[in-house]
Amino acid sequence: MTPRKIRWGVLGVASIAVRRAIPGMQRGEWSEIAGIASRDKRKAEEAARKLGISRAYGSYEELLADREIDAIYNPLPNHLHVPWSIRAAQAGKHVLCEKPIGINAPEVRQLIEARDRAGVKIGEAFMIRTHPRWLRTRELIRDGRIGELRVITGSFGYFNPDPKNIRNLPEFGGGALLDIGCYPVTISRFIFRQEPLRVMGLIERDAQTKTDTLTSVMLEFPLGQCTFTCSTRLSYNQRIAFLGTKGRLELERPLNPPADEPTRILIDDNPSDPGGSGISAETIGPCDQFAIQGDLFSKAICGDGEVPVPLEDSVRNMAVIDAIFRSTASATWGKP
Question: Is the same domain home to 46 and 160?
């Protein structure tokens, strides 16, 4: 049976949308990008022309009013995620919203209320959570391939000193923790299959922008610990490792693997040998994580499966991030 394609509209012409999400969703079997909006219609028309999208709108309101649109992808700046997702829900549209879903947990609770009142589906766009290699990693750890998982550790960063960039504007929800620190938070919760008991954070803020530019975090789980550093003032880096009682596991380019190349999960069954004689690799074939994410959400709209990252998970993720910020302010452990 040929699947019914969900007709998607995109709010804005953000880089993540035009470079990754839209081309990925256009490769899907269940998703059709039917429209794109910008407050500058020329930008919407230019993006539509480049990406082969049939409709361009000169306002977000015009897109939400279009009855031919079933669902909205929201890649707007962080502070606009919840307000425009609520407006989309009120217009009867399903919503896939970019991470982080909001600025804080109370915002996400408002979004849950709006979802329930409107009777639509809303989810957070953590594309890694549906990638086959992350599902396989979770399976390997659950099955004891590296013994008992005790530590998750990683670092994530890029160098962006531009004070006018939205990632450096606190009023836009900028800063390292919200932008990229949300990834190791969701990864650790996803892999441990638990919520952290307490958290500790250390933040260095930019004197001019006031956003966090270097943040280190400790999360204590019932079964182990997660430590990570995220930064907007370091050379580009992304690394995450899983350390168990009998081995370790790492993923190549954990956040944004190439869609057209295979990727590897590296497993060290003999970590006592510094020469690496115990290292083997599982190869995951080429796939587009944005296509997978879009299709799973589209199928959920059609009643085939669940929303991949529902708001109930999102509010717990934001509660952890809120607790990290509180911890840095008080210089004490915080509880989500």
Answer: no
